[in-house]
Each structure stands twice: as C-alpha cells, then as structure tokens.
Amino acid sequence: MAQEAKPKAVRGPRIDARRNRQRLLETAKATFAEKGEAAGLEEIARLAGVGIGTLYRHFPTRDALVEAVYRNETQQLAEAAAELATTHAPVEALRAWMRIFVDHIATKQLMAGVLGSIVGDCSDLYADAGTQIKTAMAMLVDRAVANGDIRLDLDPLDMLRALAGVASVSAGPNWEASAKRLVDILIAGVRTPGGEGQ
Amino acid sequence: MAQEAKPKAVRGPRIDARRNRQRLLETAKATFAEKGEAAGLEEIARLAGVGIGTLYRHFPTRDALVEAVYRNETQQLAEAAAELATTHAPVEALRAWMRIFVDHIATKQLMAGVLGSIVGDCSDLYADAGTQIKTAMAMLVDRAVANGDIRLDLDPLDMLRALAGVASVSAGPNWEASAKRLVDILIAGVRTPGGEGQ
DNA sequence: GGTATAAATGGAGGCCGTCTCCGTTTAAAT
DNA sequence: ATTTAAACGGAGACGGCCTCCATTTATACC
User: Fold this and answer.
1) Phi, psi for residue B28 in degrees, rounded to 5
2) Beta bridge mates, B191
C-alpha cells in the first residue's frame, strides 16, 4: 500500500499524445477560421498529420473539439473584461468589451456556436466557455448598474442574447459597421432614461 | 409555325404533381416545426406518402424546400406589417411587428435560417422571402423615422440583424420573456434622445 | 541496454444524412 | 384506344460523424 505517498505516482500523458493534441487544436482553429465550422474532421486530422482515430481519442465528439478551440478565445475575452473594468468608465467598458467581442467573431468565424449554447439553455457543451463569458458580462453590467448608468432591471444574459444577434451578422461583407451600430443601439437602449445623456 | 398564337400552348402541371407538391409542403412544415430543421428529407417524403425522388423533383435541394415552406410565413408577416401600419402609431407598430416576428419563431422553430440569409449577404437562397421581410421592416422604420420617433440614421437592415439575435434565443425554456425584453431594449435604443420620452 | 506494459495510434467500416439516375407508371392530348 | 411525355420512386453514389481494434511506441523497471 501507500504508493500514493510517491509524488509522481500518476503517469503523465505521453509526449507524443501531448504534441498531437496541440497540433490538432492549432489545425482545428485555423481550419475553422478558414472554412467555418462546417469543416470536416477528417480533413483536420489529415492536415494535422494524424489519423481520424487519434482526433477522436483526444476529442470524443465534434463539439468537444470546437469547445476546446473556443476555450482559448473565451480566456482572452474574460481577461479583456477585467482589464477594461479598470481602465474605462463602466458603461464605456461595457461598450468596448462588446466591440471586442464582435471583433473576435470577425477575425475568426468561431464563437457563434458557443454563444448559441450560452443563450440557449440546457446543453452542457461549451459549459466552461459559457461560464467565463457570462461572468465577464455580469461583472461589466453590474458595474454599470452600480454607477447608475444603465437600467437596474437589466439581465446580463440579455446582453449576451443580443450579442448573439450581432454574431449572426458575421457573414456579410461590410458587416463590421453594422455590428458597431448594433452595439451602440443596445447601449443606448439600456441606459437610464434620465442619465447623463448620450 | 405559329402554334404560339394558341392561348393554351403550354401544358399545365399534372394534377398528381400539384397534389404531391402540396402534400410535401404541408408535411415539411409540420415536420420542421416538430423536429427542427434537422429533420431528414427521406422521412418527410415517407410521411407525405411519396418517394424521395419525387421530393427532389419538386424541390431540387434541401434549401429549396425550406424556402418554399417559409414563403407562407413571410407572406403572413408582410401582411401583418401592412395591417399594423394602419392601426398603430409608428413606433408601436414597429414594436408590435417585432414581437409578432418572435412569436412566429416561437411557435414554429422555422425562420432562423431565413433570417440568417437575410442579414448575411450573398446567398440567394431565401431571396424572395428575404425581400418581403426587408420591405416590411423598411416600411415600418420609415414611418417611425418620418414621425420623428426614432433616429434618422437607422438602417432597417440593422433592426433585422438585431432580430436575428432574438431569434437565436429560441432554444431556451422561458425565452419569450427575454425576447420581449430585447425588443424593448432595441426600441429604446433607436428612439430619438429628446423624443416624447419612454 | 533489454524487456514488459499500457498508452497512443490510425484507418477500415458502420451509420445516417443529401442528392442522382433511370426504368416504370400514369395523366392527358389526340 | 393509342400515343406521349411528364411524374414517380427507390436503389445506390457520395460524404459527413463516429467506433472498434490490431498495431505501434513511449515509458518504467530491471
């Protein structure tokens, strides 16, 4: 007994496994960005130089792969929210973060799936990613509410739902202007009526 | 030569063809509503009592079938817009129409695809349906702008883009409340700042 | 170094979609 | 009744997602 006292009782993952997982993530991110989420998994495996079986060993379902790719993005987004909260006035931080959000959607076409699952309900795919995003948004909204800039009764989730709309615009040609207009409309829509004016 | 002078030179479609087309449309509408857009075409064909080949004869692609199903809905929506324009004040007509829109999305799960293609860009699928919706929205927005209720610089398409967001909420359990809140936020966001107050 | 062992690999094949092709059936014109 | 072309329908091609398992390979222990 008592092997558990040994610091390295558990065998870590093999280095080829770790390397293949990393290659798959990078390839998947690039391929999703280029061809949209419709990209085939077999192609991703081929581009990564591994077999399809290996891909499924690391990511048991298509959604698991997508979520893993997103985890990076959501991480960055959460950090950006924290940063903005310290450098901008509440309502401007909110606006800026929403714009960063749509920028992320712009460059990589990802994220729409995550958003859908956040604002949808039950499915636990993307659960982690969803939590990070929700937390970030709630923090920004709470700050703005506490400062009296926006409605008291605003559900942070509603802002995410609205962003999901902005996200679905991402196909169009000059859609970035539209996305910014929409963010502004949303911000204007949630401000307190008697506030410091637009 | 000169058969073309005859009024009925062109042979109309056979009655069994017309009947099967109608049955396919009804079955597709019911099946899409029940199982979402993921419903299989072979199942729809079977439920309609025709072969898969017949389905594809009438609707060459999956998208063609979906669009045909939607054409009905968009027709109703366009008529509702005209009606509301005569019975409500401009901005309230806009709000009411947007709510009707989300109700349509609620009862039948359709429409998300159409919206996506409207606010997206190029794809000419759903082209007709898109035009009807765009026209209806433009009419309502123009009326509200002319009345001085909402911003002059509002692109009607932006409102549709926003609605696309509301549409993507349709999965959740008590999503209707969210959808209504979002519509109200959008309306508040596009009102003129010094307007008659909310 | 050599060997045992379990983790990791990869691709053949199952399943289930969309869509095509073509021999057969059938409504309608004469 | 006969002719004709439109309409039918289902077998099967093709391409996705995902499973299974024989083979390969990194690591632990002599």
Assistant:
1) -65, -45
2) B150
Per-residue pLDDT, averaged over A105-113, amounts to 64
State pLDDT tens for residues A86-100: 999 999 999 999 998
Does the nearest atom of strand C lie within 7 Å of B14's Cβ?
Answer: yes
The segment(s) of chain A belonging to CATH 1.10.357.10 are 68-190
A6 strand C contact, CB < 7 Å: no
Residues (pLDDT < 70) of chain B are 1-10, 106-127, 167-174, 194-198
What are the beta bridge partners of residue A150? A191
Candidates A157, A161, A172; nearest CB to B119: A172
Per-residue b/e over A82-117, b at no fewer than 16 CB within 10 Å? Answer: eebbeebebbebbbbbbbbbbebbeebbbbbbbbbb
Residue A194 has pLDDT above 80, yes or no: no
CATH code of B69-190, in short, is 1.10.357.10
Fold classified for B12-60 = Arc Repressor Mutant, subunit A (1.10.10)
Q: How confident is the model over A130-150, as a mean pLDDT? A: 91
Task: Classify domain A13-60 by CATH architecture.
Answer: Orthogonal Bundle (1.10)
Four-point Cα dihedral B94, B99, B104, B105, nearest 10: 110
Closest C1' nucleotide to A53's CA:
C10
With pLDDT > 90 as the criterion, what percentage of chain B qualifies?
42
CATH code for the structural domain at A68-190: 1.10.357.10
Nearest to A186 by CA among A195, A178, A194, A176: A178
**B10/A53 Cα distance (integer angstroms):** 57
